[in-house]
Each structure stands twice: as C-alpha cells, then as structure tokens.
Amino acid sequence: MTQPIAVKDDPWEMAQRQFWQVARRLSLRRGLPELLATPQRELTIRFPVRMDDGTIRVFTGYRVHHSLVLGPTKGGIRYHQDVTLNEVRALAMWMTWKCALVNLPYGGAKGGVVVDPRRLSPGELERMTRRFASEISILMNPQGDIPAPDVGTNDQIMAWIMDTYSMHIGQPISAVVTGKPVLVGGSLGRKEATGRGLMIAAREAARLLGLPWRGATVVVQGFGNVGSATARLMWEEGCCVIAVSDVRGGICDPRGLDVPALQQHVAATGSVVGFPGTTPISNRDVLDLPCTFLVPAALEGQITGENADRLQAQVIVEGANGPTTPDADAILEARGITVVPDILANSGGVIVSYFEWVQDLQYFFWSEDDINRRLERLMVRGVHEVAALAQSQGISFRLAALQRAVQRVASALATRGIYP
Ligand code: NAD
C-alpha cells in the first residue's frame, strides 16, 4: 500500500519521441531538428561533502542546458535518489518548450543531484547545496542560467544557492535563482504559482469542454509544492478533492477531503497517510479513480500504455513534467480523455519565476494581486491558443502545444542564423 511509484519509461526516450512526432509535422530546414533534439551543454559533476560524522561522501550532480536560442536558460534543480542524466536531459528539453509556448524569453535547463534529501541532516543538506551551487556556477548566472526549485528542493535551498553565488561575486545577486523566500528577493505568489496555473488550466479546460466546475471531482497524485497548492486552490474554487497521495501512500474520501485540515496534518506528520476519516489507497490505484480532473503531480512516466485504458478521469491536467508516456497519449486520445499537457498546465511556476527574475533585476517588487493577475492572463491565453490550434488541426492539446513551442524556437534559431 505504501509503495512509492517507480519511473519505468526512460524520460529522455519519451521526450525524443514527442519531439520527433512534432518535428516531422513541421517543415523545418534540414539540420534544425537534429540540433533541437539534443542538449546544447551538459555538465556532470562529482563533488565531495563533509558529513556530520566527519566522513567525506561523494555526490553526483548534473546541469543540462538544452537550448539558449530564446534567452538565458531556466529550469529547476531536483534532489532525488533516482535522478539520471537522461531524466535531466528530458526535463531540460521540456523546459525549452514550456518557456517558448508561453512566450518567456528563456531557453530550457534542468539540474539534479542523486540524493534522497530526507536522509541528510540540515547541515549536510546545506553543505551539499552550497558545494553543488559552487560547481554549477561555471554555468549559472543571472544573465545566462537561472535555476529554481523542483522535486526535493525548496525556497530555503534556493536561498543557499543565492547566498553561495553572491559570496563568490562579493555582492548580493538575487536574480541568479528564483523560488527564493520573499525576504531575500523572492516573489509574492511564487510558492503556489504552479498550483494556481494548474487550477486556471483545469478551469479553462472545463469551460472549453462544457464540464461543471464547482463540484468537479479531483484526484491528485503527489502532495508536495505543486500537488498541495493545486488541491488547495481547486478546493477553494468549490471543487471536490476526493483522493491524494504522496511517496508514503494515498488517502481517499468520496465525500471530499477538507484540504486545509489535510495540509495541517501533512505539516504535523510529514505525509497525507493517516488523515482521519479516510480510506488508504495506493499510488497506483489513485490514478484509476473515476473523477473529473486527474492531476499527476509527482514524477514522470506514471500514465503508461499499461494503465491508460483503466483511467476513469475526464480530463488529465499534468502538474508533473512528463507524467504521461507517448503510448498512453495514443490510448487516451482514442478514449476521448483530454490531456492538458505539462508544458502548458504547469507553466505557472516558470511564469512567476520569470516575474521574480524581472523584479530582482529591477529592484522593484510587485503586489501579489498584480502577479496573480498577470499569471491569470498568460495562463488563460495559453490554454485558449493551444485549444484553438488543436481544434483547427484536429490534433491533441499536447501535439498543438509542442508544435507551437518547437516552431517558435526553430523560427528564432533561423532568424538568429548560424554562427559563424
Ligand atoms: P515536491 O518535492 O514538493 O513534491 C513531490 C511530491 O511527490 C511529494 O508529495 C512526494 O512525496 C511525491 N513523490 C516523490 N517521489 C515519489 C514516489 N516515488 N512515489 C510517490 N510519490 C512520490 O516536488 P514539486 O515541486 O511539487 O514537483 C512535483 C512535479 O511537478 C515534478 O514533476 C516537477 O518537475 C513538477 N513541476 C514543479 C514545479 C515547481 O514549481 N516546483 C513547476 C512545474 C512542474
């Protein structure tokens, strides 16, 4: 029951299949698809950290820049025991498409360290973070590459990265990383931005598909930064959150969960498991529940060719990056289940990260209302533009979103030209 989910399909293979499916539909100049199909730079680091007991432990970390065509690279840093170079490559490529789709002046990047952060003491976590930040500072800077949080990292870790970089430079440089605490140059609204964007994407999908919004049932896999904010904001909108899960297992109540009380339970116990009045459910079974919206918000490769025909959701709104494999996409499309794809649905995070970066560069900070209004505008426009393209070409939302994004990057590349 408490078994954690495993990532079975290779995310890089998934990202490649998605890319080539789109590249074949666009008539791009010869050579461009081959260029866009591979990361521009990849850094693998082996670095030492002094542990609390005095021993030295060597960690492996990565930072991959997939594309610098549209601007400096942007993408989170993941701390997870299953991080691989291929996973980081895939996540970096998806960041390129995500930023291009919502018109941000960024290319895509991603970073990761092979570590289970829950097994480090606070001191070890800080030393590991600072050493990793130091190692990637040959790539990271406010004009070139700006990291952010992802699975297993948070605002405190971003503050350490900002401080480490600033110590190297000799002055405070808050724009080097986003997702920081507000106190050190973070943006209001950033913490729940990905969840807010997902809520808006779900609401607009309901509008487009003629589904009821208030009272819509919601299932969320993964109750971290993204999953919990999405559940909370959809609950505030009057949706009925019937099941959620995290790495320790899931809980279900068909009458609807009291999400604020659940968040308090998680703050006190570290997991959704054991929330009073609920039935336990596995991470796998949670995906099969009948619901209006299924929000996968943990890891990639969860909805596959093996379970896609069992799903009973009407709409899948992808909080995680790459939660649905190409095999599953084909099955879901044939079954008439709408997928609001990751690069669109979870783009609220990078949108508000962009706002944070702009505020840091200008030393001028906006109100939360301002931020949420701008986010709302970009998300609503994104969903409706993708839906219109999907409808006019008779293709899925995923294909439409990727097509717009890849076309934009390819056009920018053609306009910049090939150096020398
Ligand atoms: P997080 O670390 O805050 O939360 C991850 C959640 O998934 C936790 O509830 C954790 O218990 C669960 N989880 C992790 N491994 C699991 C496993 N093996 N089995 C079951 N559950 C597991 O991370 P997050 O920032 O919420 O990111 C979640 C997803 O959203 C990732 O795919 C990430 O790339 C994506 N994403 C994050 C952001 C962001 O702003 N943080 C933005 C866009 C997309």
Order of secondary-structure elements: HHEEEHEHEHHEHEEHEEEHEHHHH
Strand content: 15-25%
CATH architecture of the domain at 193-345: 3-Layer(aba) Sandwich
Taking the sheet with the most strands, its summary is: 7 strands, mixed
DSSP, total strands = 12
Distance between the termini: 58 Å
Radius of gyration, rounded? Answer: 20 Å
Uncertain spans:
none
Number of helical runs?
13
Spatial sequence of strands, sheet with the most strands: 9-8-7-6-10-11-12
Shape: globular
Output the structural class. Answer: alpha/beta
> What ligands does this structure carry?
nicotinamide-adenine-dinucleotide
Helix content: 40-55%
> What is the CATH C-level name of the domain at 193-345?
Alpha Beta
Q: Any idea of the CATH topology of the domain at 193-345?
A: Rossmann fold
Q: Going by CATH, what is the homologous superfamily of the domain at 193-345? A: NAD(P)-binding Rossmann-like Domain
Mean of residue pLDDT?
Answer: 97
Name some characteristics of this structure.
single chain; 420 residues; Rossmann fold; seven-stranded mixed sheet; five-stranded mixed sheet; 12 strands; globular; binds nicotinamide-adenine-dinucleotide
Brief summary:
The chain is an alpha/beta fold and 420 residues long. Helices cover 43% and strands 18% of the residues.
Topology of helices and strands:
Blueprint: H1 11-25, H2 32-36, E1 41-50, E2 56-65, E3 73-80, H3 85-101, E4 107-114, H4 122-136, E5 145-149, H5 155-169, H6 193-209, E6 217-221, H7 225-236, E7 240-246, E8 249-252, H8 259-269, E9 279-281, E10 291-296, E11 313-317, H9 326-334, E12 338-340, H10 342-345, H11 348-362, H12 368-393, H13 397-416
Helix pairs in contact: 1-3, 1-13, 3-13, 4-5, 6-7, 6-11, 6-12, 11-12, 12-13
Bound molecules: nicotinamide-adenine-dinucleotide.
The site of nicotinamide-adenine-dinucleotide has 24 residues, from α7.
